Amino acid sequence: MMVKKMGAWMLLVLLTLVGDWCGRSYGCLKEERIGLLEIKALIDPNHLSLGHWVESSNCCEWPRIECDNTTRRVIQLSFRCARDRSLGDWVLNASLFLPFKELQSLDLSSNGLVGCFENQGFQVLASGLRNLEELDLTHNKLNDIILSSLGGFSTLKSLYLSNNRFTGSTGLNGLRNLEILYLNSNDFKESVLTESLGALPSLKILTCKF
Ligand SMILES: *[C@@H]1O[C@H](CO)[C@@H](O)[C@H](O)[C@H]1NC(C)=O
Ligand SMILES: *[C@@H]1O[C@H](CO)[C@@H](O)[C@H](O)[C@H]1NC(C)=O
Questions:
Q1: Which residue is closest in CA terms to ligand 2's atom 3?
Q2: Under a CB-based contact definition with an 8 Å cutoff, are residues 141 and 116 in contact?
Q3: Which ligand ends up closest to the CA of 71?
Q4: Is a pLDDT exceeding 50 seen at residue 161?
Q5: How many angstroms does the Cα of residue 34 sit away from the middle of ligand 2?
Q6: First CA to last CA across the chain, in angstroms?
Q7: Which residue ranges make up each domain of the chain?
Q8: Which fold has domain 2-207?
């Protein structure tokens, strides 16, 4: 009986060690936890919205995050209203999201986003994030420059761009699987819009109240 118990105990220790070797000692991938804390340090230095993101805990259990139950990789990230307003406008470095290779859904809505650093736009993610299906950029201050940087996301199914400063001088190209597109409250010109939509063969739902 005692021996059996010891055996179980040793097995548990062994499994814990294996977990450590795989970089999953906190229940989520080490590189993803580091990436999340890097983003937190940048957008919420005063621990207002992301205060529950603490170094020594399982990042899959943190608010605003969903992991795949088997791979333990982050599949959903929501930064809605997460950025400290006192920091002013946000020029994004999209490379921050490179660690999240299995990401399916990214929400960056309501964050004062004005654009991306040169050569650090969404195009840097297109080859790394091969599963991204949903991108929410609603309620920011983004302009046409970022539209062309989205072209590489061939897996994207839903794109939310309402309440920004798009005029449509650049079209959306390459989004061949895009089914849902929200464009409300921008400055799109109708003629440009019609032209741009021709390049989206899978589109099913479009909203564009201006
Ligand atoms: C993971 O498991 C939890 C609880 O068992 C469940 O609520 C959740 O829907 C699962 N998530 C996925 C993506 O399967
Ligand atoms: C963007 O982030 C990447 C990865 O963290 C870093 O290597 C790079 O220097 C950053 N670039 C800028 C302009 O901040």
A1: 95
A2: no
A3: 1
A4: yes
A5: 14
A6: 74
A7: 2-207
A8: 3.80.10
> Which residues contact ligand 2 via a Cβ below 6 A?
93, 95-96, 117, 120
| Residue recorded with tokens 């999340």 | 36
Structure tokens at 31: 């590189």
User: Is residue 195 within 8 Å of 169, Cβ to Cβ?
Assistant: no
Residues in the chain: 210
Which pLDDT tens digit goes with each residue over 28-80?
899 999 999 999 999 999 999 999 999 888 999 999 999 999 999 999 999 99
Q: Is 121 left (phi over 0), alpha (psi -120 to 50) or beta?
A: beta
Q: In the numeric block, which tokens belong to residue 76?
A: 């959903």
Q: What is the mean pLDDT of the chain?
A: 87
Distance separating alpha carbons of residues 69 and 31, to the nearest angstrom: 17
Q: 117, 91 in Cβ contact below 8 A? A: yes
* pTM, full prediction: 0.85
User: What does the angle CA 118 – CA 123 – CA 129 come to, to the nearest 5 degrees?
Assistant: 135
Q: Which of 31, 93, 116 to mutate to test the pocket of ligand 2 (most atoms within 8 A of CB)?
A: 93
Find the 8 Cα to ligand 2 centroid distance in Å: 46
pLDDT tens string 8-32: 655 555 555 555 545 444 588 999 9
Helix (H, G, I), strand (E, B) or coil at 106: strand
